[in-house]
Design a protein that fits this description.
about 85% helix; about 90 residues; mainly alpha
Length: about 90
């Protein structure tokens, strides 16, 4: 079972709100809104995605990584590497 399954509805709601923000950005560009106003909304959408990413990462660490460590079959190293790689991608973005 995927660790975020219990929160899937909450996560999907958040992603739909973010999707709405991005659609709003499209409308702003279509309507030739002021550049700074568009950039302000881009920053808001970016922060929303970052917050979502951090919450999902915390879920992964608290569930998938911990469960793998408890199992003691070498999967913990794999899960930690996956998390480290994901963090690196988030930091670079």
């Amino acid at each position: 079972m995927v660790s975020y399954t219990g929160h899937k509805g909450d996560y999907l709601s958040r992603l739909r709100r973010i999707e709405g923000q991005v659609r709003g950005l499209q409308r702003m560009v279509e309507e030739d809104k002021y550049c700074i106003d568009v950039l302000t909304q881009v920053a808001a959408a970016t922060r929303a995605l970052q917050a979502f990413s951090l919450e999902l990462l915390a879920e992964h660490l608290g569930s998938c990584v911990v469960d793998a460590a408890r199992a003691g079959d070498g999967q913990a190293e794999i899960k930690v590497r996956e998390a480290t790689d994901a963090i690196a991608r988030l930091v670079r973005s």
